Amino acid sequence: MFKDDFKKELNTIQAEPELLDRTRSKITAARIQAAEKNIKSSAKRRRIARVFSFAGATASLAILLTAAFLFGTLFSGISKSKSLKEAATDPKLISETFADAQPDTTLPDAFLFDEPVFQDKDIRTFNSHAELLSRIKQTNKERNDVLVDYDEVKTTEAMSEDQGSVSAPENAYSQTNVQVTGVDEADLIKNDGEYLYYLTYSVLYVFDIRDPENIDKVCELDLTGDNYDQYALEFFYDSEMDTLSVIGSGYQNDIYYSEEPDSDIVGESRIAADCYFPSGYTTLNSYDVGDPSTPRLIRSFSQEGSYLSSRRIGDTIYLVTSNYAYYYDYENYDVLPSVKNGSDDWALVPAEDIYVVGQNYVDTFTIVSAIDSRNPYQEATTQAIAGTGNTVYSSLDTLYVSGTIWESYTDDFSFDSETLYSTKVLSFSIAGGNLTAKSAGTVPGTILNQYSIDEYDGYLRVATTSMNENWESSNNIYVLDKSLDVYSFISDLAPGESIYSVRFNGDRIYLVTFVQVDPLFVIDASNPMALEVLGELKIPGYSNYLHMIGDDMVLGIGNATKTGDDFVTTAGLKISLFDVADPENPTEKSSLVYGVSYGYSEVQYNPKALLVNAAEGIYGMPVNFDKAAGDYGSDYVSGYLLVKIDSSGNLRHEYLFENISDYGTCRGAFVGDTLFLVSESAIYSFDLDSFNQLDTVTFYE
Q1: Out of 260, 292, 303, 407, which residue is the most buried by the measure of CB atoms under 10 Å away?
Q2: Domain total for the chain?
């Protein structure tokens, strides 16, 4: 259940003049936004409702709010990208709008954004599984009644999957390229400078790499399970405690609960899930690898649902899954999420740890667990949200899960012309290894991947692409406060285009959109109340991933393009180096293109595949592209590419290891001056100075 400090009563405080001025400014900005009808999120409606609920308490406050609303309506034509800034910073505007307000007006703590506060109508918990099921059944019936005979509505597929990234620490050996420093992400390859761990086709290989000229395969561990009903996906490696944690997926037809559910709906003391489809689940198995040649299983944990993502901070792994409710009988407990510790029976997540957000149709549960990978005796903590989640972002103390929701219809089946899709964001406090549901909010549009979300100085920034009923797109950046209410925004960036990549870097935001050319936007975010576009660069092609090189350069990895009479097509793999030292005049300092009609790197959609050697300015990636000689697809390279940023700050080709991988899935790692490349069937070692091959070991004898 929620902690007591997240269930504050709406006590009032005596507002100091400075605090009241700040609050008035926020009210003005909120009213102008409402008048522009640009934000229709439930979070915004909740905040407005809270404001008006206090109008009867103090007459002066009622006058204040009415004046703010009228002012916002009169000036609804103010430019969207400037209205918040003007409303929040113009002293004359503020003083005229709130002329009737008195300094001694009292306002509630929740209204002043001190701490996240959940309202019962936004997120609800229940005392029993029976009560929860009853609510789900009612909500789904209401939704189905609205959707009857409405099959003509078009939908689009969800945005692309998660992507990962940020520079690895400068030390003797490479680490996974992650988004947030200190927040580890699971991958297929890890090393500690002495041993290299690699996962392929559900088999974990361990190599002793202390002598790069004599690589020794010390372990080959099959992780498919006794009945081949599991598949290993990726893993974490905790070098401090010699613990390796493998994430896998599996399916089974029956799930048994360890005790009788808290309801009379199902009377058996033990019930088996009567699934229309087999039940999918995700496992986390932790191994002691103090002796890398003989990994020893020390903990096994499973939760229902398909794997979304995970993070590791210290000794705690946060596992996120999505469990679709295949069931048609909402009086059956099988629709509720369950977890399993080791060989224990499956147990339902307690009712008080399952949350229902608003009145959303419930066909999916997003399940989050916190598991101590070092201590097998520490009980895991699990919470679930009734609603869709598909993208995960985490800071050091907060985990965010976001999902796309369709909001295009109303009760009379008319379209909302502002946006067809919105993004729901849920936050969980994970400070100190704990897991507590925290806040919920909504922003218009859809996000691209995890790099579309960033937490900075107490605010959450979210980059989205909006689509109206005419399928016309535009792009936006929203700033959310601690309660995940919209604090400010900038909208209508590159109308008709879509976001292809985003990189948040403190006070700067770099945004790439594309339709025919690649506009790189440089956005000033130093004032969270007034985002501002500083500069823009338009060049052919686009970047799917942006990687910061210090604060003044950005590495972009994407594709070049070819322009025909009436169309634009993608061409070779393009790697660009952007100079953003002058944010008002960004430039493409240099670029490399590999391929004529086709080029691809896994890094474009999985930045964890980028190898970073920041000390040497070397960046590695698997590549696949066609050669100039020969027809498309008949002559191509599938290998591993190294590029370098030289002393003059230019991007140059370093080396290409051709045809080292059959499918372009090669991964790299470095230890000192040695480069290790791992393909589907072998591991190679090379000298980084001469690129001479030192050794090769195949996986299969």
Answers
A1: 303
A2: 1
